[in-house]
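In this section we walk through a basic example: taking a raw amino acid sequence and producing a predicted 3D structure, encoded as discrete structure tokens. The instruction is simple. Fold the sequence below.
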Amino acid sequence: MLTSKQRATLRAMAHNLQPIIHVGKAGVTENIIAQADEALTPHELIKGTVQQNSPVSAAQALAEICEKTGAQAVSSTGRKFVMFRPRPDDPGIRV
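The resulting token sequence is shown next.
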């Protein structure tokens, strides 16, 4: 569980990141989960976006993806969300 200071630090680090995960009209699919899982391993901190025609909100998408990938939710603002999962063997981001 991240503290508010840790979340603030990670949010600041994610500010300049481009979204890697794009949740579309199909919602959170197995493909989205797989993409997030693959992206979290090398990057640790990733940003995603929810398209306007998506049936889920950014908070719902973030919660579902985090639950299935073992990541931790950092923030959900508007249609963007940020998640964090440190590498188990060699964490590059220390919070």
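Looking at the output, two observations stand out. The helical segments are 4-14, 30-43, 58-69. The beta strands are 21-23, 45-50, 72-77, 80-84. In the next section we compare this with other chains.
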